[in-house]
Write a structure and sequence with these properties.
alpha+beta, Penicillin V Acylase, Chain A, eight-stranded antiparallel beta sheet, five-stranded antiparallel beta sheet, 6 helices, 26% strand, globular
């Protein structure tokens, strides 16, 4: 089964003795001058092509959760239609938005958090971590509804030992929360900053920002250094000391700095474009996560796709490692009572389109 192969590969990659392929996700949040609330994120996996798809899910579509014993977990029908981006299997939606403006996404969280152990007696109320996003998108309108829904189920791993994940949920009000499963229990954090990466836990990442209190936008002033004067070499010297590596704590710091220093754009579309530009800084090239002498995956980038959701206007945008052109799906144009369920590759052709300019 393809799922088993994929999860087994992840388990092997996360073993202590084996170098880990990049499994990085970076999320930011912006608001436009006209009030649109925008959430954006990257998804990385440096080990193989995630074969990502977009899924269109109509109201009433029924799914059932995977469990360690089979496809016999929570059975759920979509009250709300939604659009999502799935990895490896169409059931595993990693990011999406529903027709009433709830956004949901999962981010890898290796080495932290702990799910409940699977209890076969509770399988009818057990939901796999990789299917929490589609269940929530089909069931909830607000963050409060998300919290209530999660309290009624058991979040489990499909395969023991697989990496945990944590989640980001945002609603039309602009409220955003992070969910982590700690010692088998759901813990929600209000995410007023709007940034999320991976491990360690969210509280640690927020506390770690205090180590970078010296950062500021713009240029450092000229300083006397004994008999000589020290001056910056160029623009941006106020961010000297910002971490540049691809680890989750470093990406969290950079995302927080770039997000909070970004000038507010007037329109939603301008803000969406701004999110893509900011997240360019988090693209991870193939090779940086591979030890010298090891063969890197045959994909162009570890950053396999970037998604931006206009929560206010219910439009989801994306671009991929194969096509940097931005594409969009407007949920307002979809009749979720009539549309059929579908899952389509994010890219029809796995090659960057290049337009030749004809000079006459």
């Amino acid at each position: 089964m393809k799922l088993k192969i994929f999860v087994s590969a992840m388990l092997a990659a996360m073993a202590v003795a084996v170098p880990q392929p990049t499994e990085a996700c970076t999320g930011i949040t912006l608001r436009s001058g006209d009030g649109a609330y925008i959430v954006a994120r990257t998804i990385e996996w440096g080990g193989s092509n995630l074969n990502s798809q977009y899924v269109i899910v109509p109201r009433g579509h029924v799914q059932q959760s995977y469990t360690p014993s089979g496809i016999d977990g929570l059975r759920f029908a979509a009250v709300y239609g939604y659009v999502g981006f799935a990895v490896e299997q169409k059931e595993f939606v990693a990011e999406g938005i529903n027709e009433v403006g709830l956004s949901a996404g999962l981010f890898y969280f290796p080495g932290y958090g702990e799910y409940e152990e699977f209890d076969t007696a509770a399988k009818s109320s057990s939901i796999a971590d990789l299917q929490l996003v589609p269940w929530i998108l089909g069931s909830c309108r607000t963050v409060d509804e998300v919290k209530e829904a999660v309290s009624k189920v058991h979040v489990i791993a499909i395969y023991p030992g697989a990496s945990t994940v944590h989640w980001r949920f945002s609603d039309q009000s602009g409220r955003q929360v992070v969910l982590e499963i700690i010692d088998g229990r759901p813990v929600f954090y209000e995410n007023e900053l709007g940034v999320l990466t991976n491990s360690p836990d969210f509280n640690w990442q927020i506390t770690n920002l205090n180590n970078y209190v010296n950062l500021y936008p713009g240029a450092a002033s000229v300083q006397d250094f004994g008999a000589i004067k020290l001056a910056p070499f160029g623009a941006g010297s106020g961010m000297l000391g910002i971490p540049g590596d691809v680890t989750p704590p470093s990406r969290f710091v950079r995302a927080a700095f770039f997000q909070t220093s970004a000038p507010q754009q007037e329109s939603a579309v301008e803000t969406v474009v701004q999110c893509f530009h900011i997240l360019n800084n988090f693209d991870i090239p193939i090779g940086v996560e591979t030890l010298k002498g090891d063969k890197a995956a045959d994909i162009p980038s570890a950053t396999q796709w970037t998604a931006v959701s206009d929560v206010t206007n219910r439009i989801i945008y994306y671009r991929t490692m194969y096509n940097s052109s931005v594409r969009s799906i407007d949920l307002a144009s979809i009749d979720f009572a009539k549309v059929r369920y579908r899952a389509e590759p994010l890219d029809k052709v796995a090659m960057e389109p290049i337009t030749a300019i004809k000079i006459r």
